[in-house]
Amino acid sequence: MTSTERIRKAMNLTSPDRVPLMCQPSWGFVLTQLPEINPVDLWHNMDGIFPRSFTDISLRFHFDGVLIPAVGLAALDQDQVLREDPLFPEGPSIYFENGDQCIYCRDDLPRYFYEKVPEISIDELDPEKIPDTISYHTPSNHLRMWINEDNPGRVAEIFQAREYVDGNLSIHGSTYAPEDYLIDQLGVEEAFLAMMTHPDKCREILLRYAQATSRHVKEQIDAGADAINFSAPWTGQNFISLDMYENIIAPAQKVIADVCNENGVPCYCHTCGSIDDRLELIIDLGFSGLECLDPPPLGNVELEDAVRRIGDRAFIKGNIDPVNVLMNGTPSQVRENAIICLEAGMKAKGFILSTACSIAPATPAENLDILYEVVEQYGTY
């Protein structure tokens, strides 16, 4: 069975030959493992290096799929560059004509500094002026990954990845949640405050961002993405109540799940931290699967409980602790934890062994190698 077939079966809740293995490397882990790569080139997908790098990590560690964590990356606009400092301690630093600075870190996401604070107030954010489709991704607060304006440039990474692996890996596209764009516009504290003080307006704003992001999702599906990762890191109970999630955020998230379902492509929700109180609700929105399912102490999800509650309705991708086990644990601890996850996860109709959240930059490669050994030895159905 090929890797693509293996993941397809798991996502469709039918048993493959063995449990698929697919972890998501962090930006910093990719750069740490591939130190020859210029982080500026990676961020702007110079000559297809972005999907190729993430794919190389998947091939190196025998993952069955690769997630392209941002699709459509625009090239660096040299006309906006004032000067570059390739010897900046943390990584190449670029200073822009408008006074902004971006440090392209060698072991993490870039850090962007604005000359003029970009946030606006909820009163200034007009729902009717939200564009029909997104022009940038929001991988972190105060950080924008600009997207090509032209198609096929908006989906170039999907085509590049498919050509690079020639059918040997499941290729997953991605999008960021509508609430991420609200946070990008207002700032973290003001966005959550606005959802309390202006719930109706925020609901409309999120629905409009959902329509915009869903169009980019459809572009990726049309380009041949095998699945879509829906990144929603802010919607765990660490940040927002269940009631606010259900009434303000969830309707917008459902828009993206519906688009994927209408096109027959699995869509799985990536939500960090504590989500024990909303497992069923997330699946009720129409998502085909769920990751991270962070275990204690990172979150509050026990895999066995999650399998019991949603394991017959959606595939589960998780949930090895990426910090306390995979990064800081001994090889024997990694092996033991992976086996425990397999024993619990294989009781679900569809299970993919993975780290709960992304592979941390400082994770030892030898610890990651153990995961493939474990699924080969213990993951056969």
Summarize the SSE layout with pairings:
Layout: H1 3-11, H2 27-33, H3 39-43, H4 49-60, E1 65-67, E2 81-85, E3 93-96, E4 101-103, E5 111-113, E6 136-140, E7 143-146, H5 156-165, E8 170-176, H6 178-186, H7 188-197, H8 199-222, E9 227-231, H9 242-262, E10 267-271, H10 279-284, E11 289-292, H11 303-310, E12 315-320, H12 322-327, H13 331-345, E13 351-355, H14 365-378
Parallel strand pairs: 1-8, 8-9, 9-10, 10-11, 11-12, 12-13
Antiparallel strand pairs: 2-3, 3-4, 4-5, 6-7
Helix pairs in contact: 4-5, 6-7, 6-8, 7-8, 8-9, 13-14
Properties at a glance:
381 residues; alpha/beta; TIM Barrel; 7-stranded parallel beta sheet; 4-stranded antiparallel beta sheet; 14 helices; 13 strands; 41% helix
